[in-house]
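Justification of resources, computational component.

The compute hours requested in this renewal are based largely on the per-chain cost of generating structure records like the one below. Each record pairs the submitted sequence with a full C-alpha cell output. That output is archived, and it is also reused by downstream analysis tasks.
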Amino acid sequence: LWTHYVHLYVGTPPQKTSVIVDTGSSKTAFVCAGCEACGAHESPPFDASKSETYEARAGTMSASYSEGSEWRAQRARDVAAVVDADGTAVAYATKDGASKLHDAALVPDARPVQIPFGCITHQTNMFVDQTANGIWGLHGDGADSVLQALFEGGAVGELAFSLCYEPVDPRSKSSLRSGFFVVGGVDATHHIHTMQFAELKVTGAFYAVETLSVSLVGAQGDESMVEAPAGEWNRGNGLVVDSGTTDMYLPRRAGEAWVRAWAKVYPRWTYDADKTFTMHENELNALPSIRFRFRGVDGEVEVDVRPESFVEKEDRGCSGTCSYFARVYLEEASGGVLGGPFFSGHDVFFDLGRG
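The structure output for this chain reads:
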C-alpha cells in the first residue's frame, strides 16, 4: 500500500510534521506528544508544550475510515506554514501557476497562518503503521478546514488546490512515489497538455464527478465500452475523487460488463482483481488503459488511466516473468472511488471557488 503526504511546519518555533493529503475527508490531525501506542512516523510527535502559539480548544474531534482505522484528538489551533519537501515555500502570482510571486523562501519567511487541527491522542490500524504523522482533510470549507484557514489568513489567494502523483513503472524495483501538491491553485509549468475542466459535484463529505462513460482501450487503440446498467456510474455519490484512497473502486453491478470489455482488448487474462496474473515485464504496455469520460464545463472531459498506474508487481524484487495484480476493484454497492491510480500522471485541480 502507498500513500502521499506533505509537510506542515506548525508552532513557534516551527515543528515539522507530515500529513496524508486526503480529498475524501474534512478534518486535519496529527500525532502529538503523549499519544500512547501511536506508532513511529516520519517526524517526531508535535510537542504542544514547546510552541509559544499553541492554543488548546474546547472539545475533541475524531474520525473513522472505511478500512477500519480511526483516531481521536484534542481540538487545537496554532500557526502553520505549508512548504516544499526541501523546506522552501513558493508563491504564485496567478492561480494557473504561470508566474511566481517571489523566489523560494526559507521556512522562517513562509507566511504562517492560524490553522485548526486535532492533536491525536489515540489511533488504530493503518494510522499506527503509516509513514505520515497524520492526515490533512481537504474536503469542505467549514470551521475545521485548514484550506479555508489558509485562504482567510491570506496565505493563498484562491480556495483551490491541485494534486498530481508521479507514476512509477511497476517494472521498477523501487516503491518510491512522489508528485506535486499546490495550495491555492495549480502549477502549469509541468503540464504537457491543456487542462480540461469537469463540473465538480460536492456530495456530503465527497468531491465527485458526473460520469458519462467508462471504456477500456487496448494497446493498438481499440476501445471497448463498459456497458454498465443505465445510470450505474452516477448512483449514490457517483464516482468520488479521493486522493487518500490507495486503489480504485467501481460499481459491483458494472463488474460483468467490465470483464467482457477487458476480454475484448486483452483476452490473455480474465480480469479478476482478487487474483494475480503472470506476464513478462516487457508486456506491460500491452495492457489496456481505462478511459473515463466526464461531464465538463465545456463539453466532455476525457481522462485515460494508464496500466502502469493501476497494475502493480507482487514482488518488486522480481525480474523477467513475474506476478502482477490490478488495483481496480469491482465491489461498490453504488458509485465508486477514483483513488490513487487516477491521480497518477494527472494533475487534478480542485477549483472550489468556481465549482
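The helical segments are 126-129, 146-152, 255-265, 307-310, 340-343. The first helix runs from residue 126 to 129.
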